């Protein structure tokens, strides 16, 4: 394997009779922030699940660095009908941390996302933005090397979007201890402004195929993108059907 923390080599995934992904190859380096863009049904969520290991490639291979710590946030975070702190601590306990330590770490994580005051509130009673911040706390508490996010702000109001995006940006630029490598990000988004703000690299998918993989400044260079992939250019311009 190269110096990448995660690599897909000619990975294809078949779901029933449908090839959801075809011949996808990419390598993710530590500290990168990769945005996955494309229309609905292009394969973004499936690719994130394949990267995370929730799905295994039908063909090709997925190779992860030894002891790679990962966490994934979904568009609609699932919350147990119990306290917010319990929702965060449970994942730590399941990962092998003693319960007392897990509860203490959960409170630190909730404080990090400015929700310590809601630690005893039932998590299912929280607003959408608060639930997504709890999900971020749950992920951050695991101290991941790689954080995968599927449309993390798609269902939130503008204020909540700004709060969650700011936390994602903060997590991607620092971690514990502060001398360690920043958390690596891979996220799917329809918000091209968000992609510009968060990503260092952009991958464009269409019909389950990875057609473009460029540094963010090149992806949003209209002339360059048009020369590389007219379909991606049409997508960025809002002309794709």
> Sheet bearing the most strands, described?
6 strands, mixed
The CATH superfamily of the domain at 6-74 and 143-237 is known as P-loop containing nucleotide triphosphate hydrolases
Specify the number of helices: 9
Order of helices and strands: EEEHEEHHHEHEHEEHHH
Average pLDDT score: 91
Helix percent reads: 25-40%
Order the strands across the largest sheet as they lie in space: 5-6-7-3-8-9
Shape: globular
Class from helix and strand fractions: alpha/beta
- For the termini, the CA-CA separation is 39 Å
CATH architecture group name of the domain at 6-74 and 143-237: 3-Layer(aba) Sandwich
Rg computed from alpha carbons, rounded to a whole number of angstroms: 18 Å
- Report the uncertain regions: 175-179
User: How much β-strand is present in the residues?
Assistant: 15-25%
Number of strands: 9
| CATH secondary-structure class of the domain at 6-74 and 143-237 | Alpha Beta
CATH topology name of the domain at 6-74 and 143-237: Rossmann fold
């Amino acid at each position: 394997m190269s110096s990448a923390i995660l690599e897909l080599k000619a990975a294809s995934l078949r779901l029933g009779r449908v090839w959801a992904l075809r011949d996808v190859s990419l390598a993710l380096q530590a500290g990168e922030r990769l945005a996955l863009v494309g229309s609905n049904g292009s394969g973004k969520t499936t690719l994130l699940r394949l990267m995370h290991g929730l799905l295994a490639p039908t063909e090709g291979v997925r190779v992860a660095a030894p002891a790679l710590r990962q966490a994934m946030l979904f568009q609609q975070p699932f919350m147990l009908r119990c306290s917010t702190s319990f929702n965060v601590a449970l994942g730590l306990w399941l990962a092998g941390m003693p319960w007392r330590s897990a509860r203490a770490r959960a409170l630190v994580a909730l404080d990090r996302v400015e929700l310590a005051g809601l630690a005893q509130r039932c998590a299912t009673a929280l607003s959408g933005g608060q639930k997504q911040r709890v999900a971020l706390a749950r992920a951050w508490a695991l101290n991941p090397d790689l954080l995968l996010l599927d449309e993390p702000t798609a269902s939130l109001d503008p204020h909540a979007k700004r709060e969650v995006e700011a936390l994602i940006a903060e997590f991607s630029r620092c971690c514990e201890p502060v001398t360690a490598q920043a958390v690596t990000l891979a996220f799917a988004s329809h918000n091209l402004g968000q992609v510009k703000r968060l990503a260092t690299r952009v991958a464009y998918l269409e019909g389950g195929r990875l057609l473009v993989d460029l540094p963010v400044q090149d992806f949003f260079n209209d002339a360059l993108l048009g020369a590389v992939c007219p379909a991606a250019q049409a997508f960025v311009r809002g002309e794709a059907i």
